[in-house]
Specification:
There is one protein chain. By secondary structure, the chain is mainly β. It is 2% helix and 37% strand. The strands form nine sheets. The chain has a five-stranded mixed β-sheet with strand order 16-17-18-19-23, with no helix packed on it. It has a four-stranded antiparallel β-sheet with strand order 3-35-34-33. It has a four-stranded antiparallel β-sheet with strand order 4-5-6-7, with no helix packed on it. It is globular, with a radius of gyration of 20 Å.
Length: 442
Amino acid sequence: MRAMRWLSGVVAAGLMVGGLAMPVRAEDSNWAQWRGPTFNGASEAKNLPEKLTKEQALWSTPMAGHSNGTAVVFGDKIFTTASAKDSMKLSAVCLSKSDGKILWQKEIGDGYVKNSKNDFATPSPVTDGKSVIFLFGNGQLVSYDMEGKELWKRDLWKDHGKWNVLWVYGSSPLLYKGKLYVQVLHRNVPANGLTAAKPGDSLSDSYLLALDPANGKDLWKVVRPSDAVAESRESYGTPYPWERPAGTQIVLIGGDCITGHDPENGKEIWRAGGWNPDKIPHHRLVPAPVAWEGLVFVCPPKGGKILAWREGGMGDVMATHLAWKSPELTSDVCVPLIYKGKLYVLDGDKRVLSCVEPTTGAKIWSNVVDTGRVVMRGSPTAGDGKIYVTNEDGDVIVCSAEDGKVLSKVSLEAKGTRSSVTLVDGMVIVRTGDKVWAFGKK
């Protein structure tokens, strides 16, 4: 899939030809959602640095608190979130891309809740260049204009019930063609975790919610049924727009299955699963789906091998449309990358990056990209022939997309780093656990 977007009313790079402002490609200048302009972790940005060093960083800015969310970018603005341990404040933050200065910071409310891997500031923001929308793990959903003026605010817990997720809700919203999609795939009994519903709280089914991004009002809500049990009903994935000639579908994953939905009304079109036949109760699902042309890829949890399904089915397509199953490749947390017609899979526990032929699942190469013992939880991103990955200690590793060879590694000394790297305009932007960093040519 290739998502081409053109900026409207803005000349992001100041390109002038014959006195006329020419549009710039959004995949070069913007990273408006957590997996970038193609929704697959890839960018067409050029002149990205091969070697990152702290001494040569363009700038670094301390944040008011931790976040696992990936920074998003539009024009000269960077947006991220923060969860402060001392003040228990959740914040929406806007920085200048040129110098890292905080342009505005808004406190969304109280709610410092975390565990060893997650907190309420995990969902990544989304923007269309006119407004930016922040979602937090306590159900707070708020929209600002680009200058920081609040446009609307919602409390989704209040309106739709608490979210019963053991390791704290972590799905990012999807902003796509005039609709804001929020998926809540959770258990239908209280979770024994930090966001557990209290006795007497109403428990809701899993669902896909569509809202009007202009005013925050619900457009529709559809229940997304599942026969999974306990924690296996939970998902940390993000809704994915699968664009095909026959029409776009919004794809959800979690609850022991993957489903395709009509973007206009949420109606389920097809579903597949089968990776948890014994209904093991702790098989929560973390990686979002990704797609390439007529195939959609699934990473089952807990060492499950990657699956690919073909487009075009209706109803239960588990057997009829299964294209391939990898004999060895797995990813329990990191979302795979699609870049220049290849599928890249990062096994964050073994720190192995693999390049795969997407039509067959055949492995082209595998390479250990980090010889330490620190796991990787950020998903790989790619641009300009390079793949960027992070580990939980705040190390950023740059690899060749051609053969996986490690080109450089820098330690930003930030434990708890789980965000993915953002690539725009010759710049590499990294949201570590405590700062936002920018690298590029000075």
